[in-house]
Amino acid sequence: MYGGNQSVVSEFVLLGLAHSQDTQIILFIAFLILYLIIVSGNIVIMILITTDHHLHSPMYFLLANLSFVDMWLSSISTPKMITDFLRENKTISFAGCISQIFFAHFIAAAEMALLVVMAYDRYVAICKPLHYFTIMSLKRCTGLVLTSWTIGFVHAMSYLVVTVQLPFCGPREIDSFFCDMPLVIKLACMDYYQLDNLMNGDCGVVAVTCFILLLVSYTYILHTVRQKSKAGASKALSTCSAHITVVMIFFVPCFFIYVWPLNITWVDKFLAVFYSVFTPLLNPTIYTLRNKEMKNAMKRLTGYYIDPKGKT
User: Fold this and answer.
1) What CATH code would you report for 11-310?
2) Angle 242-247-249 from CA coordinates, rounded to 5°
3) pLDDT digits (tens, 9 = 90+) for 236-287
4) CA-CA 20 to 30 A from 25: which of 96, 122, 195, 292?
5) What SS3 state is found at 148?
């Protein structure tokens, strides 16, 4: 299809989200605040789960890993986007562009797999409660998390191997705020149609497989919950609804960006922003606001610093 890296392009130009200077200043302030909230919010969750012994359980171990993944998901492109709002020339080096593609797919695929692991954790907790701590031991949880990172790495490497060999010899404008595979492929000096379909198929295998596993897991969980007591069912549904909400928020934009692209520029930009900024923001918000134990842990943490002598 193509041979070797014949690239003569040393950098790409990012067209960004807006052209008006006033609009860019407003966006700079808004996204800077959002990014600081994302990073601080996810760090707080990780600190809470690490330091509060009430949260030392498989479910919260996985939640801490999800917060870690979300923090890095937002850090791949958001800092660059924020600084570009203040720049007239929004350029990114070839190496920087390839790095963004690699880490974006690495982290995203790892999060998909991690969400499946979290669904499995809820399945064991609800359907096999007596064997929960035996099945979801620390060793098993650590192995599952490492597996999710391995899946992400393998998926990202498949993109990296293809991207570094693409011949770039002319066009270098990317109509977005970060480098993404579907946009970069279109700049290659070759017929990209088949390659684009191949890359969408690669992403589709990961995304669709994970989504089907999630659907099967939660369907089985909800079926089991119906047969239990109302009190237990209510608690289980509350926990699962938070998980399902996060899954939908994460997967819907992903499907329309990579699996079934709409190819409408403003829609693609909106979905990309939602995927890289609002998803990492909403995940910790959903889990903390809907989780009584997380709220209590937050109260204990704030109480410790306000009244250290009063801690138990």
Assistant:
1) 1.20.1070.10
2) 95
3) 666 677 778 888 888 888 888 777 777 777 788 888 888 888 888 887 777 7
4) 96
5) helix
- pLDDT tens-place string over residues 199-245: 777 788 888 899 899 988 888 887 787 776 565 556 666 667 777 88
**Two structure tokens written together for 196:** 């684009």
Whole-Å CA distances, 209 to 23, 102, 106, 283: 40, 20, 16, 21
Tokens of 167: 């011949």
Name every residue whose Cβ is closer than 8 Å to that of residue 192 and which is 6 or more positions away in sequence.
185, 186
Average pLDDT over residues 169-173: 81
Q: What is the pLDDT of residues 84-125, one digit of tens each?
A: 998 888 899 989 999 999 999 999 999 999 999 999 998 898
DSSP bridge partners of 173: 13
Residue at 285: amino acid letter: T
107 backbone dihedrals φ, ψ, rounded to 5°: -70, -40
